[in-house]
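Figure 3 (text version): structure tokens given as input.
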């Protein structure tokens, strides 16, 4: 039987949903003759900061740079330890190293896949190779971390709290947006994200005016006035075309988040008796950047769905500490990373994007039920 393919993501759908407005915005930028750090970027930064519940947003070139700029804005670098997870995109750890700091990897809670506060406490207490300076929490898949517990740990140890919100646009905990709990936060606008650009892009958000000023300087050579560098900065700027398109996409984000949550509810109802569906932390509004299930026979299930023309993904197949670039040279907490390694063997991402139809979802869950029954 020939099936119409169901993709994990639908990047073109994001364009088609707002094509006329996006085309108009792009033409406006092209006609303006101003393409870097102009009115479009400034307008988007204000709109995004308001949407995030932050005082300031600083557009940068990508999500990795956003983390690096956040670290440098906090003056974190050589001989400083930054604690984060191995169960994340490599970008999180790559950014720490780009800032010149030492990453220390902490295990995850097996139910939420986010950093385990108890393991974090152990890792900080046992750290000897560098001075503990910051924690980067990753709100993975759109699931808020245990922020209150982690914020308390950071306060007790005199450490900064950085939120990696690359997968969590729209997630909340106890009614408060992620990204507004810590000292500073980073976002990615990579095309697959809940708020995706049509190319690369990212942002740093903070409600600390001094940090925002440093981040703005750092993204452009450390300039506080043109051609005068007060800080050793970088070249990582959100261009006008991407900013204009992101501003259009932002107007639809709440509607698209509602659809993601509706799709997740359909999945939950149909699959909870078959495999491990995402647990939502108490008090949390999950943003469902990804809908990640867990099963010991993950690879078999993925193969069955592929045979039925249903796309899946694995986020992430190899933990950072086991990858060739990092194996044997990156520190981890004293309890090891056993839960991280188990998760990497069992997680599977099902199709999740706001352009899935109800018929698509019905077909996906039917195929999983058929596989499970077989």
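Below: residues designed for each position.
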């Amino acid at each position: 039987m020939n099936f119409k393919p169901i993709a994990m993501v639908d990047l073109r759908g994001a364009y088609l949903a707002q094509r006329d407005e996006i085309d108009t915005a792009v033409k406006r930028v092209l006609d303006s003759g101003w393409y870097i750090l102009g009115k479009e970027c400034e307008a988007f930064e204000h709109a995004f900061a308001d949407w995030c519940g932050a005082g300031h947003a600083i557009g940068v070139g990508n999500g990795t740079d956003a983390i690096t700029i956040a670290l440098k804005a906090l003056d974190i670098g050589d001989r400083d330890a930054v604690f984060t997870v191995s169960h994340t995109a490599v970008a999180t750890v790559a950014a720490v190293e780009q800032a010149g700091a030492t990453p220390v990897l902490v295990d995850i809670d097996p139910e939420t896949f986010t950093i385990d506060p108890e393991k974090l406490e152990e890792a900080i207490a046992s750290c000897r190779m560098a001075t503990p300076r910051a924690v980067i929490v990753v709100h993975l898949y759109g699931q808020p971390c245990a922020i209150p517990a982690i914020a308390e740990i950071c306060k007790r140890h005199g450490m900064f709290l950085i939120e990696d919100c690359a997968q969590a646009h729209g997630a909340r905990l106890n009614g408060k947006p992620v990204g507004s709990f810590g000292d500073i936060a980073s976002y990615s606008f990579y095309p697959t994200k809940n708020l995706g650009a049509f190319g690369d892009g990212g942002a740093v958000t903070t409600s600390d005016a001094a940090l925002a000023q440093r981040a703005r300087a750092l993204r452009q050579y450390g300039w506080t006035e043109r051609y005068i560098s007060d800080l050793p900065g970088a070249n990582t700027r959100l261009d006008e075309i991407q900013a204009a398109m992101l501003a259009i996409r932002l107007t639809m984000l709440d509607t698209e988040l509602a659809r993601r949550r509706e799709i997740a509810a359909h999945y939950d109802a149909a699959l909870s008796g078959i495999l491990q569906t995402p647990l939502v932390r108490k008090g949390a509004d999950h943003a469902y950047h990804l809908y990640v299930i867990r099963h010991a026979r993950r690879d078999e299930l993925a193969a069955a769905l592929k045979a039925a023309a249903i796309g899946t993904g694995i986020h992430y197949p190899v933990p950072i500490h086991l990858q060739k670039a990092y194996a044997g040279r990156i520190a981890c907490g004293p309890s090891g990373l056993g839960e991280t390694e188990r998760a990497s063997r069992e997680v599977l991402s099902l199709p999740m994007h706001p352009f899935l139809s109800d018929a698509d979802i019905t077909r996906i869950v039917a195929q999983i039920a058929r596989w499970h029954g077989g």
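The longest strand covers residues 131-138.
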